């Protein structure tokens, strides 16, 4: 299969898309006359054309016309012209902005079908399991009719888990609907398997990311981490918590956005408290790490905003992007334990990080990536810089009738909530459905209480059940309905207006608080006015909104308390400026996080490539093993040796017994020592080979010993880099370059890891206990760690 020139990712514009749209529509009359069998047989026809050298661009018009007709016959929906335009853009790796309610789910059927014809892996990833399962089942009927296989990558019942064999079946399907997190974790698990037979994923090829701005920007740097063996619990949590509670803001530490750092005075106090001479020395890394974690817990994590305390579960985090509680999820790197210490909750076990990847790195693994969202054009430059992706705004199917009313600027939250509730009551009295959008769970509770005071029945969405949430949000457009939700709640589920609602003015969206960025506000506004429906939106903001906190804090307090007068114009300037500043800081944070992630990504690529080679039966000769042994011995001989040290080295790494013919005087003769150690290694390898008495078994034994050494070394490295990045938090504000220092320390630790792996390869081969197991006609081996 070859790619046409026009298939260069992101090369399209609207003018070209219109031309391709005409070609798609030109096939419609002929395609509509086909019988169901002939329509379904088109799949075989397209695959044959691709096998003969045709490009996807060349078959796209006819293939899209086939899917459109299948959509009509199976789902009863024939895609609009603008939906076909969106589908054309998605095939070219474009991030398409399509307004809420424009039918993005149907749009995806065309590019997913087209790219699945290649026989390569094709995915649609979305925000939650409810949407992934729903769309796989509903849209899956179209693909199955056309002869393709489709699977949901998530279980039907939340909480259920797939077996390895079930995952093989899922990822073998032509098209997979799944979530960002499930795909990421499965990728990590697929790279932790111990044999080729256990692998369940194919190589990545094409992905469409639903709600792409959420995945590629808001959650892009969130690391997906698989935790392994627990760490030894440290009493430094208690000491560090006690220490940071003695610190005074501005004098000992400073805070800006989501960063906090010790001042020079704070560093001096830390060194005095812990009796150390250099707070940033690698020697005192654990002290630095625990102080940083405790300081972040004190200054950056707030009760009810970032987490709540549950009698059953202890610290329960709140997802900042959805406002929902996420029981069972922990912040990694010891931050969760630092918050527990701060709140006096029993400390849970801190686990090591075994494997890790960010969404940013995950999606960059795809040779062909596209995405859809109603609010992505605001960040087109950042998306181009990071992902090399083009953003294209697709026209709406019908003229937008929604009225976006001017924002109401208030001095304080009392006035803000009063005005917003008054507007909600007014709309409700007319029978209009009302959707009140806030930023946090705490705010939903405030609004709920105020609505109860007004005796207005309503639904509150701040749960952690996307299935239940989608059902509620779906009914939010009915007459007299009042719904209170966090900014991202129910995203991906359309709000359709009930009977008589259009005549009443449609859905009224009331936003309380200036949100983190304009994208989130546009997402909230877009709830109203879908597909040409009437509706209104208005935001009520104040100087007490979260985005303003930290900006001119002292002056703002004087304005709020009434000690100083302030005009509406100045309120608007302060609030909007704070949002812009916060958004700019978020962009800088994401770019910095990308630099950190590049380091781990390069190292991960090296390790995963090594694992793949080993799993695929890569040949490792005895000569290669002896080369590794030679490097280990050279490192040993650089140290000052005495007989006790040499004997310890032999017992720890080479043999269970000492038959040392080297005297103390001979230790100065490095050549003699090297020859002696080489002899021990050669004899040990020969003994293993003789015992196994089968070349295939011996090769498998060597492969598994090397794989275990690589995995053990990589686990330590991933865990260390996670801790290191957390500890780098405030170094830039201490007159240091944290990214540069991180890169240096990461390189040094990678070299240390390589040495450790080489040492453990020889140790595993020589000291592991191996037994032969007869299973019918086949022999296998069991290996016990040394």
Can you walk through the features of this model?
The protein is α/β, with parallel strands linked by helices. Helix content is 51%, strand content 14%. It has 29 helices and 23 strands. Strands 3-4-2-5-13-1-14 form a seven-stranded parallel beta sheet, with helices on both faces. It is flat and about 100 Å long. The two termini are 50 Å apart.
Keywords:
786 residues; alpha/beta; 7-stranded parallel beta sheet; 14% strand; disordered N terminus
Ordered list of secondary-structure elements with their pairings:
Blueprint: H1 14-32, H2 36-40, H3 42-51, H4 56-75, H5 81-91, E1 95-97, H6 104-107, H7 109-116, E2 122-126, H8 129-145, E3 150-152, H9 164-172, E4 175-179, H10 180-190, E5 206-210, H11 212-218, E6 223-230, H12 236-244, E7 253-256, E8 259-262, H13 264-274, H14 285-299, E9 307-310, E10 314-318, E11 325-326, H15 335-343, E12 351-358, H16 359-363, E13 368-373, H17 380-387, E14 391-393, E15 403-404, E16 408-410, H18 413-429, E17 434-438, H19 441-453, E18 459-461, H20 466-474, E19 482-486, H21 501-504, E20 507-512, H22 518-525, E21 535-542, H23 553-561, H24 568-615, H25 622-637, H26 643-653, H27 670-692, H28 695-727, H29 738-767, E22 769-775, E23 778-784
Parallel strand pairs: 1-13, 1-14, 2-4, 2-5, 3-4, 5-13, 15-21, 16-21, 17-19, 17-20, 18-19, 20-21
Antiparallel strand pairs: 6-12, 7-8, 9-10, 10-11, 22-23
Helix pairs in contact: 1-4, 1-5, 3-4, 4-7, 4-8, 5-7, 12-14, 14-15, 14-28, 24-28, 24-29, 25-27, 25-29, 28-29
């Amino acid at each position: 299969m070859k790619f046409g020139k026009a298939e260069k990712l992101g090369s399209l514009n609207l003018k070209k898309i219109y031309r391709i749209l005409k070609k798609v529509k030109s096939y419609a009359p002929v395609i509509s006359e086909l019988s169901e069998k002939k329509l379904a047989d088109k799949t075989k026809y397209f695959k044959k054309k691709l096998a003969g050298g045709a490009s996807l661009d060349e078959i796209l018009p006819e293939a899209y016309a086939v899917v459109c007709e299948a959509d009509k016959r199976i789902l009863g929906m024939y895609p609009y012209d603008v939906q076909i335009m969106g589908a054309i853009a998605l095939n070219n790796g474009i991030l398409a902005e399509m307004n809420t309610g424009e039918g993005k789910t149907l749009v995806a059927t065309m590019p997913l079908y087209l790219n699945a014809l290649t026989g390569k892996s094709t995915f649609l990833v979305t925000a939650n399991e409810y949407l992934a399962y729903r769309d796989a089942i509903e849209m899956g009927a179209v693909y199955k009719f056309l002869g393709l296989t489709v699977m949901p990558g998530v279980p039907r019942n939340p909480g259920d888990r797939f077996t390895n064999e079930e995952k093989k079946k899922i990822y073998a399907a032509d098209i997979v609907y799944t979530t960002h997190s499930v795909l990421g974790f499965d990728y990590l698990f697929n790279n932790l398997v111990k044999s080729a037979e256990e692998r369940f994923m194919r190589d990545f090829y094409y992905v469409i990311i639903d709600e792409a701005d959420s995945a590629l920007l808001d959650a892009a740097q969130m690391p997906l981490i698989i935790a392994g063996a627990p760490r030894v619990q440290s009493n430094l949590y208690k000491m560090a918590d006690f220490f940071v509670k003695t610190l005074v803001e501005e004098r000992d530490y400073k805070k800006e956005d989501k960063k906090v750092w010790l001042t020079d005075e704070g560093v001096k106090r830390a060194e005095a408290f812990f009796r150390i001479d250099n707070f940033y020395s690698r020697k005192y890394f654990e002290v630095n790490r625990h102080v940083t974690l405790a300081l972040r817990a004190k200054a950056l994590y707030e009760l009810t905003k970032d987490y709540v305390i549950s009698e059953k579960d202890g610290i329960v985090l709140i997802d900042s992007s959805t406002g929902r509680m996420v029981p069972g999820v922990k912040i990694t790197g010891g931050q969760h334990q630092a918050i527990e210490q701060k709140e006096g909750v029993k400390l849970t076990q801190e686990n090591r990080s075994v494997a890790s990847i960010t969404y940013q790195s995950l999606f960059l693994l795809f040779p062909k990536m596209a995405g859809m969202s109603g609010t992505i054009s605001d960040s087109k430059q950042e998306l181009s810089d990071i992902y090399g992706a083009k953003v294209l705004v697709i026209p709406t199917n019908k003229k937008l009738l929604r009225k976006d009313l001017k924002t109401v600027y208030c001095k304080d939250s009392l006035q803000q909530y009063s005005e917003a509730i008054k507007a909600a009551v007014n709309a409700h009295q007319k029978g209009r459905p009302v959707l009140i959008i806030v930023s946090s769970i705490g705010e939903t509770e405030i609004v709920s209480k105020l609505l109860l005071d007004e005796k207005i029945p309503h639904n509150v969405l701040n749960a952690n059940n996307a299935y239940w949430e989608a059902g509620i949000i779906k009914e939010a457009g009915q007459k007299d309905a009042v719904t209170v939700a966090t900014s991202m709640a129910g995203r991906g589920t359309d709000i359709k207006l009930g009977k008589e609602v259009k005549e009443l003015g449609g859905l009224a969206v009331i936003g309380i608080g200036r949100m983190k960025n304009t994208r989130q506000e546009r997402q909230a506004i877009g709830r109203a006015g879908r597909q040409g429906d009437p509706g209104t939106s208005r935001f009520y903001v104040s100087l007490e909104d979260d985005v303003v906190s930290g900006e001119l804090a002292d002056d703002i307090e004087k304005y709020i308390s009434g000690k100083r007068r302030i005009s509406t114009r100045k309120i608007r300037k302060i609030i909007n400026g704070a949002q812009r500043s916060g958004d700019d800081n978020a962009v800088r944070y994401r770019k910095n996080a990308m630099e950190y992630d590049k380091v781990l990504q390069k190292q991960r690529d090296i390790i995963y490539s090594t694992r793949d080679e080993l799993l695929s039966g890569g040949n490792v000769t005895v000569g290669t093993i002896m080369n590794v042994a030679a490097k280990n011995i050279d490192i040993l001989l650089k140290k000052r040796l005495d007989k006790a040290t040499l004997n310890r080295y032999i017992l720890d790494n080479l043999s269970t017994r000492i038959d040392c013919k080297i005297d103390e005087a001979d230790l100065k003769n490095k050549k003699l020592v090297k020859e002696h150690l080489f002899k021990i290694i050669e004899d040990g390898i020969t003994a293993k080979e003789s015992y196994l008495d089968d070349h295939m078994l011996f090769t498998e034994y060597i492969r598994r010993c090397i794989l275990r050494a690589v995995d053990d070394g990589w686990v330590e490295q991933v865990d260390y880099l996670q801790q290191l990045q957390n500890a780098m938090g405030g170094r830039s504000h201490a007159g240091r370059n944290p990214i540069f220092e991180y890169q240096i320390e990461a390189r040094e630790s990678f070299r240390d890891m390589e040495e450790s792996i080489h040492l453990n390869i020889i140790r595993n081969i020589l000291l592991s206990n191996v037994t032969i197991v007869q299973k019918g006609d086949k022999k296998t081996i069991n290996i016990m760690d040394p």
